[in-house]
Amino acid sequence: MRKKVNLTIATDIKGKGGISTVLTVYEKFGFFDDNAVKFIATHTNNIIFGNVGAFIFYAFALIRILYCFVFFRIGLVHIHLASRGSYLRKSFIVRFAKFFKAKVIVHLHGAEFRQFYSNECDEAKRKHIRKTFDMADVVIVLSTQWHAWITSIMKEPSRAHVVYNAVPKLSLSRDNVESGNILFLGRLGKRKGVDDLINAFVLVREKVSHAKLLLGGDGDISYYKSFVEQLGLQESVEFLGWVSGDQKLNCLSKADIYTLPSYNEGFPMGVLEAMSAHLPIVASKAGGIPDAITSGEEGVLIDAGDMPALAEALVDLLTDVEKKQHFAERASAKYNNSFSPDVIFPQLGQIYADLLK
User: Fold this and answer.
1) Are 285 and 305 contacting, i.e. CB atoms less than 8 angstroms apart?
2) DSSP assigned state of 295
3) pLDDT tens, 17-35?
4) Model pTM?
5) Do residue 350 and residue 302 come from a single domain?
6) CA-CA distance, 194 to 310, in Å (whole number)?
7) Which of the chain's termini has less CB crowding within 10 Å, N or C?
């Protein structure tokens, strides 16, 4: 008898970005092993030969998926997708899996998926997207805001579920905190609000002279270095590059505040890591952030693009130690109750169990 397995289809687990980080947590905490999961990557950031290399990588992924359907009994296929190229690749796999009558979970991560759907697709493409979600047995989204949107385009809204991302608990010492350190982690770009953050930091420095902005992430680093120099902030802004592993833990342990003033988000892992690390947070109201942070409870939320409000919130926390400590404690408690693997994985496991019945 053929062995029964479940498939997880996504981008390279060793790559950069939110989906890779989510999958790393799944693997580390045994979710794949506990649920007989075979992982197949359809895309990687470490590709050579450009588009040709990407196509070859994807073609080999399809061959591996076909092999699994031939030589294993497939229980379900869990497909993680975002927008644009990710959607194009995964939407075909949804149809491929349904052709073999497999149960399919579509797990939507793309922070800009609504923009992609509304502004970048004609009606034929939007119909294709709606069909993709309707073909899935379960659609998982990352927040209540995304749930409200996805159910508005699905024929059977009851198939949509909110499952938050999870990150490992970070038991970091707060003895090494450097007063005034404001930490940002994410791809440097306008979508993440980095331009607004740097401009707001000019106002922060006027009130808190020892403040320092730490920008961790890839993206257009050369542009932002030039931008910082034009503003005369080069002594107060540090570019960390892409940070992970022990370097990320070191950054979190030294940070005074974590900030993420994004315009679009799914459910950012960085916010969850900061909550686990006992950090107060200043962020925008984008995507799933309000599901994690209640303004005035675990941190401060501002409207994306409101630079004066962003600067004011940062200054307020940098200068009010009692409030900063209160927010940090509440953030840590909310992480423990809502976003740890011990809380999230049973929810995902129950979805698997219900489908496999």
Assistant:
1) no
2) B
3) 788 989 999 999 999 999 9
4) 0.91
5) no
6) 12
7) N
